[in-house]
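Supplementary Text 2. Reproducibility record for the structural model of the 84-residue chain.

All settings were left at their defaults, and a single model was retained for analysis rather than an ensemble. We include the record here because the model underlies the residue-level annotations in Supplementary Table 4.
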Amino acid sequence: MNTLLKIAAASAFAAFASCAASGTQVVSGAKSYPRSTCLVTDNAIGSMGSPVTKVYKGQEVKFCCRPCVAKFEKDPERYLAKIR
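Retained model, structure tokens:
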């Protein structure tokens, strides 16, 4: 039982570490992102390297790259209108 617990803890840590490395925020209870494209540019998620995931007011939002996050943060409601 102890070994199984250690394996589960290591797996959870690895999953969390990979999310942190890619700029992903892990937040339970957030609405999942419904699109396969960036909310700002409409590029495919992952087409510009590692995607970035953020949660804004309980809604998960995915971006194709870090510069799109900055654009989103200037006027988030404009972009969120695309998924509401």
